[in-house]
Amino acid sequence: MNFNKAIVVGRLTQDPEKRTIPDSGMSVTSFSMATNSYFKNSSGENQERTEFHDIVLFGNLADVATNYLKKGSLALIEGRLQTRSWEGKDGNKRYRTEIVGERLQLGPRYSEGENYGNNKNNPSKEGGKSQGKDKEIPVIDEDDEINVEDIPF
């Protein structure tokens, strides 16, 4: 059995960059996220380590990310790891491992009066629903504790 799953919760280090695949017209959005881990070193001192993750989203997820996320936004990405390779301008082979997103949850709003991103069609304050649409946008509450027993694996 094989299993390829990545789940990260972190903050965007840049605004999402959207482009379109020429042949199919499908939207593709890419950005980087930072996640932090905390540990004690051998001397017992608290340490923090930051990891950076390249994220790629396709289709509707790409559109949602572009419309509702910006640099500093908190988000949960669930997807799979994928490594691409290409030949660089110097003739050397280059590699990049990315998380190809399959699910996206948006983090909390910044303040009471401010919504996600800079799009004027952002979710309203009432129930996190899009204006003019019945779809609810999932939101991560920063104050919620993660219970290890709630993780499905």
List the defining traits of the structure above.
OB fold (Dihydrolipoamide Acetyltransferase, E2P), 7% helix, globular, 5-stranded mixed barrel, mainly beta
Give a verbal description of the structure:
This protein is mainly β and 153 residues long. The chain has a domain at 1-39 and 46-108: Beta Barrel (OB fold (Dihydrolipoamide Acetyltransferase, E2P)). Helices cover 7% and strands 43% of the residues. The protein is built from one helix and six strands. A five-stranded mixed β-barrel has the order 1-3-4-6-5. β2 (17-20) and β3 (27-40) form a beta hairpin. It is globular, with a radius of gyration of 18 Å. Mean pLDDT is 82; it is low at 112-133.
**Radius of gyration (Å):** 18 Å
Span between termini:
15 Å
Gross morphology: globular
CATH superfamily of the domain at 1-39 and 46-108: Nucleic acid-binding proteins
Strand order of the largest sheet: 1-3-4-6-5
- The count of DSSP E runs of length 2 or more, i.e. the number of strands, is 6
**What is the residue-mean pLDDT, rounded to a whole number?**
82
CATH topology of the domain at 1-39 and 46-108: OB fold (Dihydrolipoamide Acetyltransferase, E2P)
In short:
The protein is mainly beta and 153 residues long.
Question: What is the secondary structure topology, with strand pairs?
Answer:
Layout lengths: L5 E7 L4 E4 L6 E14 L5 E13 H10 L5 E14 L5 E14 L47
Parallel strand pairs: 4-6
Antiparallel strand pairs: 1-3, 1-5, 2-3, 3-4, 5-6
